Amino acid sequence: MAETDLLGEIMEIILYVEDMNSQVSFYRDVLGFKVKTPLATSDYSHEFWVEFATGSCTLALHAGGKRRFGTDAPKFVFKVDDILATRQSLLDKGVKMGEIRSAAPGIWVCDGEDPEGNKFSIESHD
To answer: d(Cα 48, Cα 24) in Å, to the nearest integer?
Structure first.
């Protein structure tokens, strides 16, 4: 970190969830992320914390969510190479996805929702 930087890179995104099994299934089986921890379980209903390997930033599901966040919930962005194909693949898996839009010249974004209504986006660059 340079002397002028206040913060370093994002290391994790914490998402508070109500139904851990459903959410693990979504992020693992639908979006395709590998569970980083805990590894030795198939039933996540009693887990308080589940981490996914998502590159340099970890996605962590934290039990105890009560859907209080609404539109103020954190929204995270996943980089994709082909936004059209990725959007269609997610739609085919039953994921609620919006329309693709240009956020800026050469930047294409599409918003989606997980089963509890948490927002995420997919993004590609020309």
So the answer is: 12
